[in-house]
Amino acid sequence: MTHSMNLSRTASELVTLLEGIDGRGYKAYKALTGAWRFTDFTLVFDHVQGDPFADPSRVKVEIDPATASFPADAYGNEARRWGTAALLARTFRHEAGNRSRRRGSGRSGAVRMESVGQIVLPQTAVGIDEEGRIEARFAVGLPARGRRISAQEAVALLTEDVPEIVGASLTAAAHPAEEVARCAAANEDAEALRSALKPKGLIAFIADGARLPRQSGIEDTPLDIDEVVPFTSPATLRVTVELPNAGPTTGMGVPEGVTLVVGGGFHGKSTVLRALQSGVYNHRPGDGRELVVCRDDTVKVRAEDGRSVAGVDISPFIDGLPMGRRTTNFTTENASGSTSQAAAIVEAWEAGAHVLLVDEDTSATNFMIRDRRMQELVPSDGEPITPFIDRVRALHRDHAVSTVLVIGGSGDYLDVADHVIRMRDYLPEDVTDRARAVASELPTGRVDEAATRLRRPLPRRPDRSSIDPSKDRRSTFVRVPDDRTLLFGRDAIDLNGVEQLTLRSQLRAVGLALALIPSAPSGHESLPDLLDWVEDRITAAGLDALSPRRLGTLASFRRFELSAALNRLRSLEVE
Known about the structure:
The protein has 575 residues and is an alpha+beta fold. The strands form 8 sheets. Strands 1, 2, 3, 4, 5, 7 and 8 form a 7-stranded mixed sheet that branches.
């Protein structure tokens, strides 16, 4: 966080400057670059747009601790700081939407801050440091008539709109004290809960009373409360965790191993899995998933017909393809459902995942199971796929990789499950004993098709020259046109299958991180080593390590999402 308060000109000097350039060409706005001291904050222009139709100007506001006046509990540790910062970012964005207005041509008058959504994680829109100092980064559209400066509108924008938005969002006086305390405490509790999972032998936790359903498949806000059945843990899986603010908290602990989530259609199986995949992040108070957490090495995998795969060893799952094609170094521009799912598992494993989430609905059927009848009809010597059912136990037994599977139609998986949870009317039941009885009473006669021991694939070494972020005259071209696409150099990376990327700001940060990889020092050659190097840079310098431009549009991501984007880069080559 930078501080510009001692280097700034005054707000009255800003008004004088604007009045002096009224009617001039738009580029005269460049004179605004630098810091301007207002009564309660400092306004800094980091980048001034060159045209009213271009991306708005990048600015930031700095507020000293005495003016911000938040209680020490709001920023007493990192978890509390990010909980408070998310509240301020949501409020600023809301107030900007309500108070800013069109003030001329193009983007004139716009005041915009990046959305932080329902999740709470490190981001660059709003930060609060150890002393309680606030920095907020956002964009403003400097007013113009055509392409001429409109000074009167600019004065109103910068001396009325912006101060009103700042005053209504970035100081303690703008928020009920209990709301600030709630946001800080909720984030601290979520961090503590996640840290407690591994020592307790758990991979996930869903608190009693959690409200899991969302408004829709594309809307992450909670479903109306009256329509939601609060989550209640089965007694056999209920655990209690002591949290720093909430105190003793009960809920369903998901143990390590192989866990099935079963049940009829529309009873909440996939709702639980989606809550778990989002549980790698913390959530804002009121979301319903504040105390739904997964270990941070949890990855959702699925089939993705048509994706590219670069040099992945999928032979533990698929071997002996027709025409003698090798799968120890499998490369394709157009993966099938089964090869794409095998690649996704190996890629997540290579990046360090120890928990896999799998939904039968988004999986390739022939990758998941071959039942006894199909084994009889198509003998194993004519089938290159070792189905997941024959590898899932070895993943945990030999490599400490646990799996949670949503299963609705394949009872064969009862033979390999450690725990079985049945969802009924959105409530879970532990039916493990009954599942074992059913498996014993109704044997399928299915034969295990794993002919070899499951070995960990060797790490790959990306060819750095194949990771090119340049386009035309730009050395780094990264754009995010929608929620699922990353434009990287001359490539468009389709991230539809990477379901744990939630925010556009995460996609943008992932793209900038990809652009750094070719500059990694020697000694960082394997893909895991490169992921470590990027993580170390961000740990040392924050998300600003990704770009010298001090962007307010970045949010943190995990190594697994960075790896997933790299693996879907169609130009990628590996050694």
